[in-house]
Design brief:
The protein is mostly helical. It is 61% helix and 0% strand. The protein has a single domain, classed as Serine Threonine Protein Phosphatase 5, Tetratricopeptide repeat (Alpha Horseshoe).
Length: 96
């Protein structure tokens, strides 16, 4: 696989993880993480707003998905782009 194709595939895979979290599809999320060549990378990658998969699940109030992410290796002690740790997001979620 060329670098360009690999980068495009990786971007689609990352976007898919964020989409699955937004839609609440836990079963497909587990499948995607387990089938990925690098599930840890999918868990730690950030979207344009600087959020990783666990940040997004916490912000959206999707505890079932957050549990799936943690069970699959998501780090609880990582700060997001603005320096906020996941525990703070769960205690004080951002509201529009």
């Amino acid at each position: 696989m060329t670098t360009s194709k690999m980068s495009t595939t990786k971007l689609k895979e990352e976007a898919c993880v964020f989409s699955l979290i937004e839609s609440g599809d836990a079963d497909t999320l587990v499948q995607r993480l387990q089938e990925s060549e690098d599930g840890q990378k999918l868990l730690s990658d950030r979207n344009k707003q600087g959020k990783n998969a666990l940040d997004l699940a916490a912000l959206l109030g999707k505890a079932d998905l957050a549990k799936v992410l943690v069970e699959n290796g998501a780090a609880l002690n990582k700060a997001n782009k603005s320096g906020t740790e996941i525990i703070m997001l769960t205690l004080f979620p951002y509201k529009n």
